[in-house]
Write a structure and sequence with these properties.
The protein has a single domain, classed as TIM Barrel (Alpha-Beta Barrel). The protein is built from nine helices and twelve strands.
Length: 277
Amino acid sequence: MKNVGLGFRKDISQETLDLSGAEKPAFVEIAPENWIGLGGYWGKVLREVSEKYPITTHGLSLSIGSPDPLNWDFIKKIKNFIKTHDIKIYSEHLSYSQSDNAHLYDLLPIPFREDAVKHIVKRIKEVQDFLEIPIALENVSYYTSVAAEMDEATFIKSIVEESGCNLLLDINNVYVNAFNQNYDAKKFITDLPLDSVAYIHMAGHEKVEEDLIIDTHGKAIIDDVFELYEWTLPKIKPVPILLERDFNFPEMQEIKDEMTKLDEISILQWTKNLQNA
């Protein structure tokens, strides 16, 4: 694989480590919270992973949109983990998961408001200054907007441009939100700060009602999401692409086939870009 990585999950850890040659992902992504401080068997697995693959991280607990103070003890652990494993990309969710010191165990949407933009930009700058690398923040899936004063694309663009952070563009999340919130996915992507995209996520979802899709990461990517991915690539510079699969794992061959398809589309689209430049 030239551009495509795979989410490293414990359920498929050995199969992922066994991949080689052209079937080997370009990198793996881990949630640092699930690995920080682990010893024993899983500590050994992490060492093997870091020796075989470049690692990117996709965090779950920064809670950048929370009204609570930043958890600096946790952020210090993240910095040490990044340095220990030579991690080039630290990504997180543009959401919050903590309030009044309670961990909510979900990634909740932030109100699309100017005061929220200012609050989040200040926190991003503090974290980036401490980590000494930019954060890549992901557009998240959500099922209802909260007290919105602006549209989501404007909200995201304002945060990225004012903080200097990067954007992790989750194309499946765009598709899910566009379906559930009844907006145009392609226009939404066009309105984002595409020069700041540092990373792409691709995943599957589940349609549970005629008018409701749930972002699950437990299914294969559907054709419509592949089409949106193919449409998007010519609009951004070449970046790493990550296949997310969190549960309901198929045979490894199916995962390899998805990675291959993602890789082939990216090579074709970005080669066309170079030829047309």
